[in-house]
Amino acid sequence: MRGGWLLRAVMMGAAAMLLLGGLLTAVAHHRSASGQGGAPCAPLAGWQAVTVTARSAWGGARTGTGYRTDGGGVVVPLGELAEPLLSGRGLYWDGERRTVSLLGPDDVLSVHFPPGRESVERAVLNGAVIPLRAVLCGEQVYLPVEHLAAVLDLEVVWTGSDSLRLAPAEPRSR
């Protein structure tokens, strides 16, 4: 059948888009970081809330709540804010293994949460184990803003003492 390859290619592309859309929806499904009575889940308790706005290259934006950690860093909700920043990259959640993987233009970052653990102190970046504090709160993964920015090639701009903006970095001249 002539032209059959085109139909197969279109159907495979559509199936891939549906699969990717399902994976993004699964990761982006946001349960509030609040536990009983509006208190944050245990690993986030006591940390200062930070407003995070993610802006895409084409103008879309989402706003979510990140947290300033006790060490002074900031963790941001990956699924809640990632979609406008991905622009063709990947975000995958393996619920069975409790592992999230983020694919940037040059880097791959994976974080695994062992059963019963809501926070971890290590991740794998391009095959190497690195120190990284990540939190799993309900179905939402919080990653340090500096790692998210490095993997997705983002610029982090503080817009106030308790608010920041993530946006695609300007292309570097070579």
Automatic annotation (TrEMBL):
It comes from the Bacteria. InterPro entries: Mao_N_sf. This is Copper amine oxidase-like N-terminal domain-containing protein. It comes from Symbiobacterium terraclitae. The lineage of its organism: Bacteria, Bacillati, Bacillota, Clostridia, Eubacteriales.
